[in-house]
Amino acid sequence: MSTSHQPPIAAADPTLRRALVLAGGGMRVAYQAGAVKALFDDGLRFSHADAASGGTINLAALLSGIAPDELCARWRSLRVKDFSALRPAADYLHVTHMSALGSADGLVRKVYPALGISIERVREATGIDASFNVCRFDDKTVVPLPQSALDMPRLVAAVSLPIFLPAVKAHGSTWTDAVWIKDANLLSCVERGARELWLVWCIGNTPVYRNGAFNQYVHMIEMSALGALHAELATIADINRRIASGETVLNHHAPIVVNVIKPDVPLPLDPDFFLGRIDAATLMDMGYRDARRVLRARVPSPLAPGATVMREPGVGVSFRETMSGAFSLGVADVREGTRAKTRLVMHAAIHIEDVAAFVADPQRRAGLTGHIDFEPWGRAIPAQSGVFGLFSPSEDPALTYMVYELGFRHQGTDYYLAGKKHVRLGSPLRLWRETTTLFTHLHLGTDSTGKVIGAGLLRLGPRDLLRLLRTVHATNAPAGRAAAAAVWGFFRFFSSELARTYLRRKPRGTA
After folding, report:
1. Under 8 Å between Cβ of 233 and 222
2. What is the crossing angle of helices 55-63 and 30-41, to 10°?
3. Is the pLDDT of residue 402 over 90?
4. Which residue has the higher pLDDT, 364 or 509?
5. How far is Cα 432 from Cα 423, in angstroms, rounded to an integer?
6. Does residue 229 contact residue 258 with C-beta atoms inside 8 Å?
7. Which of 51, 75, 206, 264 could hold 55 in an S-S bridge, CB 3.0 to 4.6 Å?
8. Each residue of 340-393: pLDDT tens digit?
9. Residue 159 in contact with residue 178, Cβ under 8 Å?
10. Local structure of 302: helix, strand or coil
11. Closest among 130, 138, 192, 180 to 155, alpha carbons compared
């Protein structure tokens, strides 16, 4: 009895010739789930797909029939520590001869089932031509396994990074992660007929070379993965030149277009995810935001190394904050909005890329990613843009704002949630209320100039504050003094502003 099924992402139209390419990136590929949701919500479906390294996890889930929304929900509830599994204790007595530091038991027994991966359903998926890249160590080649040939041993091998996970014996060969040779197989899609490629890229690409064994292991992956990607982009550029001169190349008569979805700055590395400095929800919000940016621009990526270049941030600070409260549609007054029985929850991750520059900037603005839960509309609605401001000035010298703004889409319409905490010179008895109460308005459109269609008050409770404090950490800083100095610098600025406002009661800029 056939168990064939058409996954939600499948186009079921071979003439579409659109490919989804999911590159690697370790556990950080949670980012891809958010990016795929943005593409799916925008109506994109795919006739082709390809994945390598960590990207095979998401592609296997999608081909198992998991819809992008459900994939995001599964990542959100996944225990990140399930990725790790130790070997028998006796193995560590002979560490220099171990096949790897860990085992794949956590992947097979916990992660794959939690994400809804079924090898049988992957094989039976219709309406999409997909491949999974694995390195055959015997001859050091990358094999793009068609979905119909995928099995559990080689799905595990696809993410078996040397040193950390053992190589896999299957079908008379030794198999391992392909990332050292290729982390995105664009040409496999092109050769199979894809003309429009959407690549979701997670690996960092800045010119900064870091000290330390782990950092340099990461750099080796970056060099291998990006070197291969740049070669593939150059090959596609050459194919397009030949097509422009009148040739038919690999049965292509029209140029091949590549769209790269990537972060502006490198994503946190797996240890940050494992230690809770970032979570899957934040990574998915980042992926959704970056994909929406590419979708809005609709400008193909250059077929050159610049396609994946990222900014190198300074030493920064990041934290996560959750606020909730009564919120009503159809009103413009926040007090009126609090009479509603419906509640809105804002989940925000604040990214201060450079603490020193942030403190020196009079506007004190930083990036924000996040999502909202709003009972009439649903849960985990991701933001496509976001702004955070801390003690930002107003026209009144006695008043500053803490600003939280999220732009998002719901059922094809753009909305903008703009909130401010009003921090005014006065009695210290007002400190808690003012620094934890967010006056919030919902606007139509992509910024706060649009018509107000909803309002309410969101609050940060004592437990929310404790959870926030546990998430504060330095970013782009080596562990030790530099990280501690960044966090201390942020808290010192924050406490000095509170003292100025509620103890000294001096307008900003006064002695």
Report:
1. no
2. 50
3. yes
4. 364
5. 10
6. no
7. 51
8. 889 999 999 999 999 999 999 999 999 999 999 998 999 999 999 999 999 999
9. no
10. coil
11. 130
Average pLDDT, rounded, for the chain: 95
> What is the token pair recorded at 194?
């894809």
Q: 406, 301 in Cβ contact below 8 A?
A: no
Which residues make Cβ contacts (< 8 Å) with residue 435, sequence separation at least 6? Answer: 402, 421, 423, 460, 498
Q: Which of 125, 146, 153 is nearest to 4 (CA)?
A: 125
199, 258 contact by CB (below 8 A): yes
Beta strand ranges found along 46-109 (DSSP E): 48-52
Average pLDDT over every residue of 452-480: 94
Q: Which tokens belong to 96?
A: 């220099």
What is the greatest pairwise CA distance in the chain? 81
Q: Give the whole-angstrom CA distance, residue 511 versus residue 508.
A: 9
Q: Which residue has the tokens 């080596």?
A: 478
Dist. CA 176–CA 391, nearest whole Å: 51
Residue bearing tokens 């390809």:
50
Structure tokens at 301: 């990526």
Quick check: 365 and 389 in contact, CB under 8 A? yes
Q: Where are the beta strands (DSSP E) in 157-280?
A: 168-170, 173-176, 196-200, 257-261
The rounded distance, in Å, linking the Cα atoms of 355 and 483 is 11
- CA distances to 215, 246, 283 from 84, in Å: 20, 52, 19
**What is the per-residue pLDDT for 95?**
76
Structure-derived torsion over alpha carbons of residues 486, 488, 494, 499, reported in degrees to the nearest 10? -150
Looking up tokens 């998002």, which residue turns up? 408
Q: Which two tokens stand for residue 389?
A: 């401001």
